[in-house]
């Protein structure tokens, strides 16, 4: 079984943290494997875990009430998803589906929030990096939604 501390050190989200902080985090994360086609969590499921993808690919999909399911983004190795749990939200706003066999580390949102509260210096670094991930995802989502709207309203317009 791989050393979780070692796996965490290689992730952009957590790289460069102090050894003591890595030890704390290593005690919180769990490794899980998922087969191609597995649903890691569904839209509307209880948001309890934050995930960091180690290998494989995961699609984040959103199903609006009045339309087809949209692929919001594809997560590659090192990517973070399920951040509703880290934010303390009750449910996931999208679903996560493996499109390849995948391995991910996950941490319970409540444990991560507790660590951030008890270790504010480390917490600031983690929150800053999570904010960067979330902001980038929202930028990408905005562009995708714009393209979908453009295609729906004017299918003859080239992108």
Please describe the biggest sheet, giving its number of strands, its sense, and whether it closes into a barrel: 4 strands, antiparallel
CATH superfamily: Jelly Rolls
Strand arrangement across the biggest beta sheet? 1-8-3-6
* CATH fold title: Jelly Rolls
Count of runs of 4 or more consecutive helical residues? 5
Q: Beta-sheet strand percentage?
A: 15-25%
CATH class equals Mainly Beta
Number of strands: 8
CATH architecture: Sandwich
Mean pLDDT: 86
Distance between the termini: 47 Å
Radius of gyration: 17 Å
Output the structural class. alpha+beta
Name the helicity range.
25-40%
Uncertain runs are: none
Question: Can you tell me the overall shape?
Answer: globular
- Tally of separate domains: 1
Reconstruct the topology from this structure.
Blueprint: H1 4-9, H2 19-26, E1 30-34, E2 39-41, E3 49-55, E4 58-62, E5 70-75, E6 80-81, H3 83-86, E7 95-98, E8 102-108, H4 109-118, H5 120-153
Helix pairs in contact: 4-5
Structure description:
With 159 residues, the chain is of the alpha+beta class. It has a single domain (4-153), classed as Sandwich (Jelly Rolls), CATH 2.60.120.10. 39% of the residues lie in helices and 25% in strands. It has helices at 4-9, 19-26, 83-86, 109-118, 120-153, and strands at residues 30-34, 39-41, 49-55, 58-62, 70-75, 80-81, 95-98, 102-108. The strands form two sheets. A four-stranded antiparallel beta sheet has the order 1-8-3-6. It has a four-stranded antiparallel beta sheet with strand order 2-7-4-5. The longest helix has 34 residues, at 120-153. The protein is globular. The chain starts with a helix and ends in a 6-residue tail after the last helix.
């Amino acid at each position: 079984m791989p050393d979780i501390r070692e796996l965490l050190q290689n992730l952009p989200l957590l790289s460069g943290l102090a050894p003591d902080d890595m030890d704390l985090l290593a005690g919180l994360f769990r490794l899980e494997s998922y087969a191609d086609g597995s649903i890691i969590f569904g839209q509307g499921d209880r948001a309890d875990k934050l995930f960091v993808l180690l290998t494989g690919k995961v699609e984040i999909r959103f199903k609006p009430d009045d339309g087809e399911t949209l692929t919001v983004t594809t997560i590659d190795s090192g990517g973070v998803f399920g951040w509703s749990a880290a934010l303390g939200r009750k449910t996931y706003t999208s679903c996560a589906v493996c499109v390849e066999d995948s391995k991910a580390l996950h941490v319970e949102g409540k444990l991560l929030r507790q660590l951030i509260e008890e270790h504010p210096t480390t917490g600031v670094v983690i929150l800053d990096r999570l904010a960067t991930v979330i902001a980038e995802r929202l930028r990408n989502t905005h562009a995708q939604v714009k393209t979908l709207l453009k295609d729906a309203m004017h299918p003859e317009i080239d992108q």
